[in-house]
């Protein structure tokens, strides 16, 4: 089968290669959980993929190390495809259309990760569910990571109907999913984005959309405060983000007992997030970094599929790229440019636009 692999010496750090395809489901476990064998139709690409999986969790000066660390791994988690074979009792059979995560992020610690940017994958059964009927394979492949991140983070921080939610970076991957998930849960949503994306975010259902370049956006935000949850999808350890100072300027906009949540940060913040996940010890103060849980994410994927099929969630796909060296490199380069609206998807099966 064809698959993409990280290669520190290749342009953009990625190349296509040919490997032996997984066959059969005789291996009853995969990362200690049941696995489904699937043909991939489309694979979603996320910023973490372009940052070599661990590059968003270490100092920028370590990016070269991160690239070498994942050499030979197949990138990407998100996919939508068709079941080829499934273990008895899994609830799936050949021909079923499914979507979800093809790999556990922890697998990179045990050796080359087998991600979704490949023609065939083994996906843990607790990381997939049936594809939303209302979405194409391309649209479904764009949903798992951003949708599950938003849903799990809201669940962790107690989102309820009537809550006031601020989404900073509302036009990006996680941001545009967060706006819609919050609305589907009955929240009032204020979105912050660039001028060119105001209409897009309004179309997602945000009650108020603020242009961060129009006047003093922080004064405008404070007029809408207090917020039960602030979803800061912009702040990170990246030098291009550190000067924005969203947390310092918005900390006072959080309601008593509310939460300020970010999705990127320094290495120490990722260590705190890991400690909270593993040992349930919370060392965060007024700002908390959220870390998605892909294992056992099937219930979140089922909820997202229901939102989509009920018309409460749509996926914005900025571009569908071919499964070629050039297409994979363009995906990585575009994400590193940090101006993506919604998601990028690779058409692995070459069926996008086919009649």
Question: What do these coordinates show?
Answer:
There is one protein chain. The strands form three sheets. Strands 3, 4, 5, 6, 7, 14 and 15 form a seven-stranded mixed β-sheet that branches. Helix 6 links the parallel strand 9 (188-193) and strand 10 (208-211). This protein has helices at 47-50, 63-69, 137-141, 144-156, 173-184, 198-203, 217-224, 239-242, 246-250, 267-279, 298-309, 325-336; strands at 2-6, 14-18, 35-45, 78-85, 97-101, 120-124, 128-130, 164-168, 188-193, 208-211, 227-232, 254-262, 288-289, 317-322, 343-347. Mean pLDDT is 91; it is low at 26-31. It is 28% helix and 24% strand. Helix 4 (144-156) packs across helix 5 (173-184). With 355 residues, the chain is α/β, with parallel strands linked by helices. It is globular, with a radius of gyration of 20 Å.
Please give a quick description of this structure.
With 355 residues, the protein is α/β, with parallel strands linked by helices. 28% of the residues lie in helices and 24% in strands.
How much of the sequence lies in strands comes to 15-25%
- The string of secondary-structure elements, in order, is EEEHHEEEEHHEHEHEHEHHEHEHEHE
Whole-number mean pLDDT: 91
- Number of DSSP E strands: 15
Unreliable sequence segments: 26-31
Largest sheet composition:
7 strands, mixed
Distance between the termini: 24 Å
Q: What structural class should be given to the helix and strand makeup?
A: alpha/beta
Assign an overall shape.
globular
Cα-atom Rg, whole angstroms?
20 Å
Roughly what percent helix?
25-40%
Number of helices: 12
